[in-house]
């Protein structure tokens, strides 16, 4: 039984990047042996185990044989006689097919070290084309490591383009696609991610609302995301809104289902696309601002307004106007229903008088 650190942990160590997850492959072991050592089995399609103390993932070395179309339908062989080289052969890119043994010795049967040195993303074998999710995955790696000078090898890019042309992406579930989108958002490189998919003809399939993607929008997006702090809780949310900020409202209908975007992502981008035009109005008026605040439901959900303003600031849309609206909103939010009720108003009159008072507060603030 031999244990090797594999995949992203080895790759990122070699690239002097932070290592977040450590995955291990176990050669020469059986399911029964792993269980007897106290590991907990979590994999259904193939045996993956959690270490009894560190809870890191340990997978038995395996080979895969494709059956059917798409990313599913693989038959796995995880018998104890599967070698490390056979396990690494099924991986997507050579830079992800490097292993490190318990003594720190690197095992590199497919020349991943050479491709790291040459800053090249290259597939390990023709089996790459059996999983269409790899089109998105490699585009994401190209975006993530662009700052290091990595590019996709021509032969790999051709394989990816062929997979797109053959309709393989249609076999991917929306959930799997969203996971790759979410990871790209975390990286802060969705502009390059989009460019790579666009080169392959995959962008209209993955994100049909971005069918009019342009190099200009990519450059603007990259610049605007760069001003955001990755430590912010709203980094991905704002990045997503900026990414789809050129889309029509109708194209964003029901993206909770069409993209499997979380509700807060879908709402934030629709909020921004619906109301950003107000920020270009050189003559703000109280009624238009009140209408926006009501639609954003700032009275009960102030975070929606905050996200809208943060997105607008990152997009560098009329900062003076944003400040004016934020200050006016503070005055309007200071008007509480209790104050109206204390004046003796009842029923539907409360809402009417509340709107009037908030309108007056906005008007006074905007005219100041």
From TrEMBL:
Using the record for this protein, list the coiled-coil segments as residue ranges, or answer none: none
Which metal ions or organic cofactors does this protein require, according to UniProt?
A: Mg(2+)
Q: Name one GO biological process term.
A: tRNA 3'-terminal CCA addition
Q: Which domain of life is it from?
A: Bacteria
Residues forming the Poly A polymerase head domain are 3-121
Fetch the PANTHER family from UniProt. MULTIFUNCTIONAL CCA PROTEIN (PTHR47545)
- What name appears for this protein in its UniProt entry? Multifunctional CCA protein
The entry assigns this protein to a family as follows: Belongs to the tRNA nucleotidyltransferase/poly(A) polymerase family.
Record keywords: ATP-binding, Magnesium, Metal-binding, Nucleotide-binding, Nucleotidyltransferase, RNA repair, RNA-binding, Transferase, tRNA processing
Q: What InterPro entries has UniProt attached to this entry? A: CCA_bact, NT_sf, PolA_pol_head_dom, PolyA_RNA-bd, tRNA_CCA-adding_enzyme
Q: Which Pfam families match?
A: PolyA_pol, PolyA_pol_RNAbd
